[in-house]
Design brief:
It is flat, with a radius of gyration of 28 Å. Helix 1 packs antiparallel against helix 2 (43-63), helix 3 packs antiparallel against helix 4 (107-135) and helix 9 (276-310) runs antiparallel to helix 10. The chain has 15 helices and 11 strands. With 471 residues, the protein is of the alpha/beta class. The N and C termini lie far apart (65 Å). The protein is 49% helix and 11% strand. The longest helix has 35 residues, at 276-310. Strands 3-2-1-4-5 form a 5-stranded parallel sheet, with helices on both faces. It has a two-stranded antiparallel ribbon with strand order 6-7.
């Protein structure tokens, strides 16, 4: 007998409704405005409509318009909608300018469309957020919630329910069978202010009298038997019961739900670059690497000549590094040393290192030696932004010394990264420095967004190319 069933993500049906309404509004505003002003919805207007709709959904996907409406404030949501619309309009204007078709359109029609559409897009979202709350009585049971289990997971949930005003739920308090002494002992150093209202039987009585709508069971994962008993007891009520898995005992690296057939799994160590996000990341890398290579081509030529004249040897040094998923790659650098270490033992460059040439010291301090890595980005071995690649010998050394060190390789190595703009660039002569670099790298993986990449690239221009520890 089949016992597993696929678990749907909450709100996935509403995402389709949001998309449909947005398409309807974008199309309707243009069609109505065109028919009223020029009295004909010609193929030119159909073309720009298709371009704008496609551009809007790309921009909306990047900014998370359809995936954050359940966990963000109304102000933030409206801002992301406006930003997405602004991006797609800017893109359509650029396309119209380069193809010299902008004069074929009525400026009045486009002006009204461009200005009024975001008002409609934001207005109906405002209505969805505000009207249901304003029409509902304050004492309505539908928005009342309780938490069973005074645990860390329970307190984190309580904090979210209380601080996020856009969440349409009112937390009544906690219920737990344990005494206050046992609760304090289990929490250790955590001393939250909690509102204990009674034991689990009291909570069950509350649910049976329809005094609360949502019941969150936040007991630890090892209490599976007790959780099952609670679920069976609350099945005799009309309350909506939710389990709060205590995943906070694990260090999650960009976790996500995944259905394997009818079995639901949660990834603990994963990459942020799957599906559409991987396309965005690759587009970013190709676009920026081509632009940068074109801009720095004179610099590449000058540095190549300088390396050739500074000492005998090749201009480009190709060192073995670990790439995505630990696969070996060849990372390009302008040669800055008289010797080229690439074996089982690689000594990090230090201050006054005799292996470094005078010209090599200059290009290392200014990061000019790393410019050929933009070709690694173009070929797909590296990214513009990501954890800096270390020599294979250093990887093998530090993976045994630093916890979660190899998780850096869940993304492509980068030319610059979060660690570099925070001061962890160049020599890591102590273990704690490397630990901090890894910590920043994992923080980047956990929190990746396109905007974070743009921020890192911007900050690299001002403080990422030089450093006191870059020898």
């Amino acid at each position: 007998m089949e016992t597993g069933y696929p678990i749907k993500q909450h709100g996935e049906e509403s995402v389709l409704v949001y998309r449909f309404i947005d398409i309807f509004l974008i199309c309707s505003v243009l069609i109505i405005t065109t028919l009223l002003y020029v009295e004909e919805f010609s193929s030119l207007y159909k073309l720009i409509l298709c371009v704008v709709v496609i551009a809007y959904f790309f921009a909306a996907e990047i900014s998370g318009v359809y995936h954050t409406h359940k966990r963000t404030s109304l102000k933030q949501l409206l801002l992301t909608v406006f930003t997405s619309w602004f991006i797609c309009i800017a893109l359509s204007l650029v396309i119209g300018f380069f193809f010299k078709v902008s004069e074929s359109y009525s400026r009045v029609v486009l002006g009204v469309w461009f200005l009024s559409t975001p008002i409609f897009l934001m207005a109906w979202r405002w209505a969805v957020f505000v009207l249901p709350k304003s029409l509902r009585p304050d004492d309505c049971y539908r928005n009342k919630s309780i938490i069973i289990g005074a645990t860390r997971a329970g307190f984190l949930l309580a904090n979210e329910l209380e601080k996020n005003k856009h969440i349409d739920e009112k937390l009544i308090g906690f219920y737990d069978d344990r005494t206050s002494d046992r609760i304090e002992q289990s929490l250790g150093s955590i001393k939250p202010s909690i509102k204990m209202l009674g034991n689990i039987d009291d909570a069950l009585l509350l649910a049976k009298h329809r005094s609360v709508k949502n019941v969150y069971v936040a007991l630890p994962m090892e209490a599976a038997k007790r959780i099952k008993q609670i679920l069976n007891a609350f099945s005799d009520s009309n309350a909506h019961v939710h389990i709060v898995p205590d995943f906070f005992t694990f260090d999650l690296i960009h976790s996500r739900w995944k259905n394997v057939g009818h079995v639901v799994t949660l990834s603990v160590h994963d990459t942020p670059f799957r599906g559409f996000s991987s396309i965005i990341k690759r587009f970013e890398d190709v676009l920026l690497s081509i632009l940068i290579i074109l801009l720095i081509s004179p610099v590449l030529l000058v540095v190549a000549i300088g390396v050739k004249l500074s000492s005998p040897g090749p201009i480009i040094f190709k060192q073995d590094r670990y790439g995505l998923d630990g696969r070996p790659i060849k990372v390009w650098k302008f040669r800055s040393m008289r010797s080229t270490d690439n074996g089982a033992v690689v000594k990090q460059a230090t201050k006054g290192d005799p292996r470094i040439t005078k010209f090599g010291s200059f290009i290392r301090r200014t990061s000019l030696d790393e410019l050929p890595q933009f070709f690694n980005v173009l070929t797909g071995q590296m990214s513009i932004v990501g954890p800096r690649p270390h020599a294979v010998a250093h990887n093998e050394e530090y993976r045994g010394l630093i916890d979660k060190y190899m998780l850096r390789h869940h993304v492509k190595p980068g030319i610059t990264g979060w660690a570099q703009i925070n001061g962890y660039r160049g020599e890591t002569d102590t273990l704690d420095k490397m630990e901090k670099r890894v910590e920043y790298d994992l923080t980047y993986i956990q929190n990746w967004t396109l905007w974070l990449d743009i921020k890192i690239v911007y900050l690299t221009i001002f403080k990422g190319f030089t450093g006191k520890t870059a020898y």
